[in-house]
Amino acid sequence: MNKLILSIALITFSVISAIAQIPPVFNQQDSLRIRKSKLSQLYISPKRIVWTSDPSGRKVKNANSLLNTGVGQADLNKGDFLMLANRGVETEQGLIIDFGREIQGGIEIVTTISNSSPAGRIRIRLGESVSETMSEVGIDGATNDHAIRDFIVTIPRLGRTVVGESGFRFVQINLVDPNSRIQIKEVNAVMSYRDIPYKGSFTCSDDRLNEIWMTGAYTVHMNMQNYLWDGIKRDRLVWVGDMHPEVMTINSVFGYNEVVPKSLDFVRDGTPLPKWMNNISSYSLWWILIQRDWYYYQGNLEYLKKQEDYLVNLLGQLTRNVDENGVEQMESERFLDWPSSENTQAIHAGLQSLMLMGFKAGEQLCNALGNKETEKLCQEYVAKLKQHVPEMADSKQAAALLAISGLVSPSKANREILSQDGVHKMSTFYGYYMLIARAMASDYQGAIDNIREYWGGMLDLGATTFWEDFDIDWMENAARIDELVPEGKIDVHKTYGGYCYKQFRHSFCHGWASGPTAWLTTYVLGVNVLEPGCKTIRISPHLGDLQWVKGSFPTPYGELYIEHHKTANGDVKTTYDKPKGIKVIIEKE
């Protein structure tokens, strides 16, 4: 019997080792302590030297040697490598390096044989802007909050050191100790990411929209770490409400990825009822909406069944937050997004809309689950909530949700609020829903123009990922974030931001800002999922002033390829290539 048990144990461990690629020196009990990451690494050499502390080249020598493609290995060769030297009592000789685009990860430093042992101490400041690399923690919002991005490290005489974990594009490296000297062979960025294909694509006759689509996709990709984060410098957390635009971008670009259900379950398991997810009542509503959209795009009924108990109890809890007149009475914290957080009427309008949207989604999910009792309950509260129609409160956030929920006609919301004042009063998070509401009002051109100006404005300032917040007024007399701030220009990162994201604390890679990627796929490329699992898709393109658009869309059955071209008389000619297993319906523009 003992031999049989041992044999079974060895077979079981062999299977675990094969699946998890655990070296066989670990035993069965060791395997229970091991957590495997789905993340890969890329090593990126610098693209340019932005600045050195000594333009004469006497104390900062051979900076351009860092631009050579690195190999990550120290050796015994001497050469013309970067040399930093502090003379006498002086400190902080150094330089700023640009890696070309924002990444999530750390820094690899390779030293040479020409150093003392140890080589010495250097200060590293990672930055999402050039100016952030020149900041001091605790001043102008600079922080080591969710990631240590400003620190001192001792590096060896001859070896490789990997340090840091943050979101950054730029790094400043300074020699710390007086009367010291250090030689560095390589400084490379170490990007941590999911090595997954971009199955969805979008290109059109406007390169600006193409860049915006891809920037939104990349912004979310960087936040797809072991869990789906909000930001890669600050807010490296799972905020379930903020996840909705990210999940819609994942649906449009990557298709199924385990980071979504893993993150949804993480929040669910950490929020026993009657608690609200992330301590924000509306975020529990967003969890329901994400579950509905994830089910429609991915069609995984088995996963949905695992949510049933929590979903049914959450819907029951929500009924206790609606009064006899159908007015939402959601508990604290009452929140839509930060720019609307001081407009209590707008928050009420948004919560009334989200409650209605949540019960509609609950009805669809319970129908799929065959839970007729809760489906009927949702229908009852949908009817009840429709009895109360709040004012739009001069808020684009409120107007968008009221239109999407059906409480206010999209044409009214667009005419009176959404189309007014250009891109003023937009926000990076709720901008997605503003675009959807404008599309529902058939104002596709207005939405396309908003995307070009608002999200394009961040690109004009040097962004390679989309920001936590943005105000179009910041464009006036602004310096780009990828340069030293010229005299007389405004430092956007140091100057602007509010609430929890003031100045350098402001995140410049925030997944909730990716909405245009999902919107362009849905409304311009025209992909509308009508049946769970993408079994039926309606292609309904709206090109506006574009001459052509083409792209791909990931379904559980494979990629759907679509092309639209305007003919000489202005009609749109559509061609597509679909995978087996799905039905496609063409709707003319």
Automatic annotation (TrEMBL):
Keyword line: Signal
GO biological process: carbohydrate metabolic process
Alpha-L-rhamnosidase C-terminal domain sequence ranges: 526-581
Top-level lineage group: Bacteria
Cytoplasm recorded as keyword: no
Pfam families (UniProt xref): Bac_rhamnosid6H (PF17389), Bac_rhamnosid_C (PF17390)
Bilayer-spanning residue ranges: none
Signal peptide segment: 1-20
InterPro entries the record matches: 6-hairpin_glycosidase_sf (IPR008928), 6hp_glycosidase-like_sf (IPR012341), Bac_rhamnosid6H (IPR035396), Bac_rhamnosid_C (IPR035398)
Annotated Alpha-L-rhamnosidase six-hairpin glycosidase domain residues: 199-343
Protein name: Alpha-L-rhamnosidase-like protein
